[in-house]
Amino acid sequence: MASEVQELSHVLKELAEIKTLLSVVIEQKTGEKAPLPPADKEFLTVDEAAAFIGAKKSYIYHLTHQKLIPFSKPGGNRVLIKKSDLLDWVEANRIKSQGEIQKEVAELVAGSRRRAGRGRRRLS
């Protein structure tokens, strides 16, 4: 559990660094400051959500229109997306690396061998 918390903390620090780098790249390409949200902001606008994950605004609108990510519309017009919901969506669409897949297969094979060994009867 402690290692998972440390890993999550590391990922969040890396994400903050990526956001900063992304902001610099956007500013260099467009001459405009990217609307990156403050780190402690819970709900993001469409602009902020797009900048947060490095996508276009139209893609965020597509995700909300298709109801692929949860969102709120307080007052009926402005779309707000909870940052944790956006991160959950990103994580849910994660593709495992070849190493992770191989590790899972090895664990499954090892587990099936242990179960198969328990089911055998010894003849005396």
UniProtKB/TrEMBL annotation:
Taxonomic superkingdom: Bacteria
Family annotation (Pfam families): HTH_17
InterPro entries reported for this sequence: DNA-bd_dom_put_sf (IPR009061), HTH_17 (IPR041657), SinI_DNA-bd (IPR010093)
Any one GO MF annotation of this record: DNA binding
Sequence ranges assigned to domain Helix-turn-helix in this UniProt record: 43-94
Protein name: Transcriptional regulator
